[in-house]
Amino acid sequence: MDLSTLLSPDCTRRAVDGSSKKKVLELIGQMAATRLSGTTSFDVFESLLNRERLGSTGIGLGVAIPHGRLSSANKPVAILMTLQEPIDFDAIDNQPVDIIFALLVPEDQHEQHLQTLAAVAQRLNDKNCTRALRDADSDQELYNIFTG
Q1: What percent of the chain is predicted at pLDDT more than 90?
Q2: Which member of 67, 87, 130, 139 is catalytic?
Q3: Where are the beta strands (DSSP E) in the chain?
Q4: Mind listing the domains of the chain with CATH numbers?
Q5: pLDDT tens digit string along 96-133?
Q6: Taking the model in full, what pTM does it have?
Q7: In the annotation, is 67 catalytic?
């Protein structure tokens, strides 16, 4: 899967000041809503929060992949960010998270959602990739590393 078709440079941020899981999910909501006409930041936040209630999307090794489906979305949107300081995300390894990749997809695209999550998880499971993401000096470099 070509991850550059999913993630855009304007949805990539490095060294974000996110003091808690809730704050990070709210920020993702604000960023994603600008890319999804007819969707509010609260819609995005609520979708991500509802998914987190089912179980944390912190997959370990400092990485979380919050995701959700939206009835109002007409296309998938992704947000990639690194955090200034790691935060508690209730990850499966109980380690704090500093790399966040959020994915929002239209409600009727269940199969694409699963395939995309698998591709993103595979990319973020690569220790060389996560090391490079953590060392990125700009939003553009963060984008280039992830999509490269």
Answers
A1: 73
A2: 67
A3: 12-16, 58-60, 63-64, 67-70, 77-87, 97-106
A4: 3-147 (3.40.930.10)
A5: 999 999 999 888 876 776 888 888 999 999 999 999 99
A6: 0.94
A7: yes
